[in-house]
Amino acid sequence: MKSYEQLIHEASIRILNKTGMRFEHPEAIKVLKDHGIQVDEEGIARFTEEELMYWVNMAPHAFTMYARNPKYNITVGGDHLNPAPGYGCPFVVDMNGVKRPAVIDDFVKFTKLYHQQKTFDVNGGIIVQPNDIPVDNATLLMFYMTYLYSDKVLLTGTADGKQVEAMMEMAKAAFGGEEEFRKYPRLITLINTVTPLQLTNVMTESLFKFVENRQPVIIGSLGQAGSTSPVTLAGSMAISNAEILAGIALCQMISPGTPVVYGCETTTADMRSGATAIGAPEGAICYNQTGKLADYYGIPSRAGGCLSDAKKVDAQAGYESMITFMACRDANINFMIHAAGIMDAYASMSYEKLIVDFEVIDFVNRYHRWFDINEETIPEELIDEVGQDGVYLTEEHTFEYCRIEPLTPEISVRGTVEDPGKALENNIQKKIDKMLREYVQPELDPEILDKMHQILLARGVEQELIDKLENM
Question: Is-above-0.85 flag for pTM?
Answer without folding.
Answer: yes
